[in-house]
Amino acid sequence: MDSSQNSSSAAATGNGPINQSKEVEDPKQNLTHVINSIQKTLGLLHQLHLTVSSFSVASQLPLLQRMNALVSELDTMQKLGENCDIQVPMEVVNLIDDGKNPDEFTKDVINSCIARNQITKGKTDAFKGLRKHLLEELEQTFPDEVEAYREIRATSAAESKRLAQSQSILPNGDVKVKTEH
């Protein structure tokens, strides 16, 4: 069997290189291919470790075959990785280099977001309290103007809500994104 037949039969079985003319553009599927290649590489490394740890002259051919399979899979992984655009923060890489769990980075980021969210919520609540207090004070001094303000505010809120619904804008100003199935 020549090399062109070998690569076409390997691609047909799903064990060989991906056909470059029909690259998959779905990022999730690209990532799945990379993950599968990583798992296959880990399996090959385990097999290679077992072969090396119990090496004898008779196991030289299986050792060479496993090494070739590992090199081939690493090449495949590298090619598949070119189709994936994943940004990994340097902090995660540094944690891995230090032998620590990268989940610590995620935990720290989430805790930081929670702390900032609580600070922002506190500020928002403080402004709401100030607004309520100012309206109470203004209502005692200028009751007619405050009533007119509340009517204008209610009209404006209703108009904003109607406009948001017609433009698929959420109340917080975000735009609804329609997913295509």
UniProtKB/TrEMBL annotation:
<comment type="function">
    <text>Component of the Mediator complex, a coactivator involved in the regulated transcription of nearly all RNA polymerase II-dependent genes. Mediator functions as a bridge to convey information from gene-specific regulatory proteins to the basal RNA polymerase II transcription machinery. Mediator is recruited to promoters by direct interactions with regulatory proteins and serves as a scaffold for the assembly of a functional preinitiation complex with RNA polymerase II and the general transcription factors.</text>
</comment>
<keyword id="KW-0010">Activator</keyword>
<dbReference type="InterPro" id="IPR019145">
    <property type="entry name" value="Mediator_Med10"/>
</dbReference>
<feature type="region of interest" description="Disordered">
    <location>
        <begin position="1"/>
        <end position="26"/>
    </location>
</feature>
<dbReference type="GO" id="GO:0003712">
    <property type="term" value="F:transcription coregulator activity"/>
</dbReference>
<dbReference type="GO" id="GO:0016592">
    <property type="term" value="C:mediator complex"/>
</dbReference>
<comment type="similarity">
    <text>Belongs to the Mediator complex subunit 10 family.</text>
</comment>
<keyword id="KW-0539">Nucleus</keyword>
<keyword id="KW-0804">Transcription</keyword>
<comment type="subunit">
    <text>Component of the Mediator complex.</text>
</comment>
<keyword id="KW-0805">Transcription regulation</keyword>
<dbReference type="GO" id="GO:0045944">
    <property type="term" value="P:positive regulation of transcription by RNA polymerase II"/>
</dbReference>
<dbReference type="Pfam" id="PF09748">
    <property type="entry name" value="Med10"/>
</dbReference>
<protein>
    <recommendedName>
        <fullName>Mediator of RNA polymerase II transcription subunit 10</fullName>
    </recommendedName>
</protein>
<feature type="compositionally biased region" description="Polar residues">
    <location>
        <begin position="1"/>
        <end position="21"/>
    </location>
</feature>
